[in-house]
Every structure is written in C-alpha cells, then in structure tokens.
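Justification of resources, computational component.

The compute hours requested in this renewal are based largely on the per-chain cost of generating structure records like the one below. Each record pairs the submitted sequence with a full structure-token output. That output is archived, and it is also reused by downstream analysis tasks.
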Amino acid sequence: MIDTHNAESRDPTRPENNGSCFTASSTRPAGSYVFRSSHVDYVRADLEYQDTPGPTFLSYTPNGRRLITAGSNDSIRIYTTGSVGEPANIDDCQESNTAVVASNDFFITGSEDGTVCMYSLQTKSLDKILVRCTLPVRDVVLSPDGQWAAVASDELVVKVVNTEDMNRVLYLREQAKPVKHLSFHPNGSYIAVSCADGKVYIYSLSKEEPELVKKVDGLIRALETDVEASSKVVWHPDGRAFAAPTNTRGMLAVERDCNQTLM
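The structure output for this chain reads:
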C-alpha cells in the first residue's frame, strides 16, 4: 500500500516539482544545447556526443537543479543548472537505456536488458539494482514522494517497487498486453497505465493490493511498446482530470471521476 496521506499534490509548473522525463530526437549532432525554463536558470551543455544512434531520455530533478540524460550507449550524464562546465559522467552503467526518472537525491534508469538501476546523485554512482524484468523496460516513473518506482516492460505485469526496500513490490496485473507508459496521480493515490491494447487502466494504490478502478477504452491509440509515438497520460496538477493523445491524433482531457471528455 502506498501512503497517500503524507503525499503532497505537486504542481509540475513549479521548478521544484518538475521531474518530468523527456525523449530527445534520435538525431544528436555535436554542439551547444540550451535547456530553458521560465522558472529556473538554464543548463548550457556542449554535447560532444560520440553515442550510437538512438533516442536520448532526459529527466530534471524536481528542484530543477540537475538534468540527467541516458540513451543507447553505456554512459549517463548529469548536468547542473546554470553551469557551463562539463557534465558528470557515469560510465559503468547498463547499455541501451530506455527510461530515466529523477528525484532530488537519486535517479533510476531502465534498460533493454530489463535491468532497473538506482543511482545516487550525491556519489554519482550505482546504489543498487532495484528490480529485474525478463523483457525490455519501456517506462519508469516515481511516486510524488519518491518512495515507489513503477516499472513498465514488455512483460504483462507492471511492478511498483519501494525505493527503500526493494522486497516490497506491488503488481498491476489486469492489462492484457504490455504497457508503454505510466503516470502517477499528483498525490500518489492512483496510477494511469497506457497499454499497448489502446486502453488506459487506472489503478488505486491506497490499499494493500492495487485495485483497478477504471478502464478507459477508445482514448489512446494501440501502439507497440517500442515505437516512438506517445500514448502517455498526463494528470492535471489538482488530480481531477487527465489528458492523453488520442487515437485520432488529437488530445482529450478526461475528468477522473465521471469519465467525461473535457476537451
């Protein structure tokens, strides 16, 4: 069970809460890239990539002070906001990273070989292998309090692992196909699962066992987990609604309690 009483609803428009994960273009020429924010200073990174081709995944820490990048090679970079210096590198990581998500103290990566690793931002080194999947990892997200990491892979079951005690694991089992994206509710009490079958599954995490409380059909496209197109759900900061790209390539916002289309 995830404790939702102490979880604060976070406004992702505020820099201290902006821990979103992004995917950069697979074309990565050398040069100077600026990651801008209207709330914080910028990160200027002279990215002299020698990487193999493929997507790069990025995540700011919630306080906006660091930007972590991971991709298809065996190197992770940690950029400091406002710094013009070289990023810190972690070179002994898994190859072919497919996801990254950060808290203020640590970050987590998932890879093609199914390994989910947790790294310390203080020591800039591997802390522990959090969990292993038998198939490639497709998404990793953190609960708002950073105590739980949800892992989607090409397995049918989503694993929600406690970041302090990896023996504490919740399982989301109701989806019929692998999961492409995950999204925690702002207070951590729900999680939205974007499945390859074109359905969004909403689970409650407020009890000892996760409970499927809603299945939304006809909202998102049925996408294979390895394609670059997105079907990810994004929650409104107050948690009363969520939005997602639709199967008609538009965007819809849906009210959580009554399944009403808002846009």
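The longest strand covers residues 125-132. Residues 92 and 142 are 23 Å apart (CA to CA).
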